[in-house]
Structure formats: C-alpha cells, structure tokens
Amino acid sequence: MSACSVALSRQGIVTVLREHKPRQHIQLILPMIDELLKQSCLSIRDIDAIGFSQGPGSFTGLRIGMGVVQGLAFGGDIQVVPVSTLQVMAQVAIDRDMLNMDGIVMPVIDARMDEVYWGIYKNNDGGAQPVCVDALNTPEQVSISGHAPGITDNIDIGVGDGWRFRDRISVQVELVDEQLVSDAEQVLGLSVDRYARGLSVVIDQIEPLYLRNQISWKKRPRLRKPTH
Prior knowledge:
It is built from four helices and eleven strands, in the order E-E-H-E-H-E-H-E-E-E-E-E-E-E-H. Helix 2 links the parallel strand 3 and strand 4. It has two domains: 4-84 and 182-205, 2-Layer Sandwich (Nucleotidyltransferase, domain 5), CATH 3.30.420; 86-177, 2-Layer Sandwich (Nucleotidyltransferase, domain 5). The strands form three sheets. Strands 5, 6, 7, 8, 9, 10 and 11 form a seven-stranded mixed sheet that branches. Strands 1-2 form a two-stranded antiparallel sheet. The protein is 25% helix and 26% strand. The longest helix is centred in the N-terminal third of the chain and has 18 residues, at 59-76.
C-alpha cells in the first residue's frame, strides 16, 4: 500500500485527503479522518454512512481498514457501505479516461502465495459494472472463458500489481498499468451510489473479503523456556 486516502461527500461537494507514505496507514488514517471532518465543520455523528473497500486485498491492510470502520460505525451508530477493491480500481481507470465506453478493464492484485485476485469490469456509462464475480486463482488459472459470457479474451486495459505475472496470464490485454491502486475518491463515488439504492448495512453484517477459505499462520517459536 503506497497511498492512504480518505474522502467525504457533503451536499454533492467532494473533499479528498491523500498521503503518500508507504506502510504508515495505521498512524495516518484516524488523524486524516479528523482533519477531513474539521475542514467540513462536521463531527462523526453527522455522517450518514461510511463507505470502505471490503477487499479482496492483503490480510493486514483489510484488518486495519475494517478495524477503523468498525470503531467509527459502532461509535457513531452509522451504517456502512462495503465495495469491492477490484471494482474501485476499475473505477479509477474509468475516471482517468483510460477506457472507452463499453470498454473492458481487468484489475489484478498480487495475492502472494503465487496467486492473484482478479475481476472483470465494463465501462457502463462511466460506472464500473462487474462482468463476473471477483476471484482468486494462480496466474495460469485466470481465464475469461466460463467466467464472463460474451467477453472475448482481448481486454482493453489491465490494472494492478498482479500484472507483474503478465507472462503467466493467458488473457490478452492492450494496455497495462501495474501502478494503479484503489483510491478513496472512487470508494466514495461507488458507496454514494449504493447508499442511494438502499444498499447500506450495519457493521455487524460485514466481514473483510479475503476470498481465501483459510489463512495459514506460522506459530512464533518460544524465545525462552517457561519457568517453573
């Protein structure tokens, strides 16, 4: 994670704060939220809903984000609106005019353990419309066939650091941007749309979207023998 960002929409006016400081999100995020609220002369209890990236993504990153959202939502009795990280990335590409109308974008994130998170999205009137369910596979298993009916194997744009495995992914893509990442401005836009359609929920109903059924943990060895 290279950038930390928060965004607020008030009466249609969007304000965004960004900090480009790798691996400092846990120290940055709450002060940035406080600053954004102060700039807008609001308190957390004035917020209607909190939108956030539910995943897929790194275990640590999702836990940090989920912990912050839980604290704010419980403390302020606020509804939440989860959105797919891959959909957010697709929306970033669309908002940057990287994709023509009806064009297809494939976000791919390095999931470690020799796997990638990936999805397929279509530019539908300026919105990132999912074409298939987000998935987790090895690079060799990434395939449009069987996942996205009506979509050819030629993708307009590939985004995300998972495209470092381009030589192992069979899908053909015209343009790749490995540096593109999700951003709070697009999380906000997607969340506002979902909130308007009545798709907000209480925080108790939400878990991070890991896509992996099991998380493997390696137990730390004892540093010293127990005393008797």
